[in-house]
Amino acid sequence: MKRLKWTGCAVVAALAMSCGSRQVVVDPFRAAEERAIARARAHETREVFEVRLNPTGCEAPPFEVRLPGEGAPEAEGVWQRVFLEPDDPQGPVAALATRFETSLATGAGPLTLRVRGRLLSKTRRAANRSPYPVLVVLGECEGASCGDDVLGAPSAPPPQLPGEPGEEPGPTEEVAP
After folding, report:
1. How does pLDDT run across 79-108, given as a tens digit for each residue?
2. CA quadruple 92, 93, 98, 100: dihedral positive or negative?
């Protein structure tokens, strides 16, 4: 009888302890957003990036930026999908898109361009709700105008963005489908 009483007390104690502990529910979109923001912050002092057009069959942005990655050899880097801003028909992103499309249309093959810009510590969500970092492109650069090697030591300070200084939109913006 005593054994049954101790077993019953143990079961009640175990239930009481499990009821008091909280279950953490991880939102996969929020976790992906936090990883994207952390990656952008790790490269926020860079001002020169390699960008390529790599269209997908899904709703992800078609552009990628090459970043030195954790565990990846520095010479290779990691390609990260990004949204390019500003979205202006006469702006630098439109000029890059035209160069990429012309290269593909003429059969010249994939093209990688070096640009001056700034990787923001915010994300935009694609139509599929996946968050991607935002690269503000200030313009294409060539040769000595690019400064450091793209995967070399970052340059400081980061370039000033057009508009009011120090003002960035909130951490996430929705993109219309």
Report:
1. 999 999 998 888 999 999 898 888 888 877
2. positive
Tokens of 97: 């898109």
116-135 burial code (b ≥16 CB/10 A, e <16):
bbbbbbbbbbbeeebbbbbb
Q: Cα–Cα distance between 119 and 57 in angstroms, integer? A: 25
Residue carrying the six token digits 């009640």: 12
| pTM tops 0.70 | no
Classify strands 131-140 and 112-125 as parallel, antiparallel or unpaired: antiparallel
Tokens coding 113: 């361009």
Ramachandran category for residue 163: left, alpha or beta (phi over 0 → left; psi -120 to 50 → alpha): left
> pLDDT (tens digit, 9 = 90+) per residue, 31-73?
989 998 998 898 888 999 999 998 888 889 999 999 876 665 6
Q: At 139, which helix (H) or strand (E)? A: strand 131-140
SS3 content of the chain, % helix, strand, coil (to 5): 30, 25, 45
Beta bridge partners of 83: 134
- Residue 26 per-residue DSSP state: P
- Beta-carbon contacts of 128 under 8 Å, excluding residues fewer than 6 positions away, are 58, 59, 60
Half-sphere exposure of 159 (CA within 13 A, CB side): 19
Pairwise CA distance, residues 164 & 72, whole Å = 36
